[in-house]
């Protein structure tokens, strides 16, 4: 069991209840990362499902939970031969913090592809990309230590006060502790990039309100490539879309989220 596996494990209490412990190592300056929280939820959902893989997840982020003991409550809505539908709620201190609707299915090890397009942007190889500076200990940005990311240089110009003016973020991604990517790692990956509004010149904590992501294939070992962009920033809201490509050049995950423009 890797550190990530341990940090996301869900222990079954009964048919509808799982005990979890939210790990402070996945903090982004106080709040816990949304992708990490989705991975915790999905551990419980998959364990309770007759199917192996979370192919579609829609999560509402009602309240930012603090680290520590919590519970996931699962409700089976329907289960069939090819898919099952589950409602999952992350509860801490008797308050619902996340609410998710999850579709599970069992994906084959090899895809039967009818059509596939390529990525809209070709990334430089990891050795030609750059890392963000290590955050100061007092920042509370512990998430950075859990993963390794190499960024396409133009998309982090905001670090030097030179944003591109477009909502975008692109990076290679893998866990800091050696681990082949799986659906739970992908849940973290779709929310691992800095908010795309940073590159548009807007900074600060940008809380996610709603995030939907789809698992399209089981990823090959190696680096993942994250391609993020946005369509509209207006009235204090922005959208963010992320594609995740694996080392074999396959699209393995897609996400779209609605978030608030950064505060503080």
From TrEMBL:
It comes from the Bacteria. Residues 25-105 form the Acyl-CoA thioesterase-like N-terminal HotDog domain. Pfam families: 4HBT_3, 4HBT_3C. Residues 126-261 form the Acyl-CoA thioesterase-like C-terminal domain. InterPro entries: ACOT8-like_C, Acyl-CoA_hotdog, HotDog_dom_sf, Sec_Metab_Biosynth-Assoc, TesB_ACOT8-like_N. Gene3D superfamilies: Acyl-CoA thioesterase, double hotdog domain. This is Acyl-coenzyme A thioesterase PaaI-like protein. It comes from Nonomuraea soli.
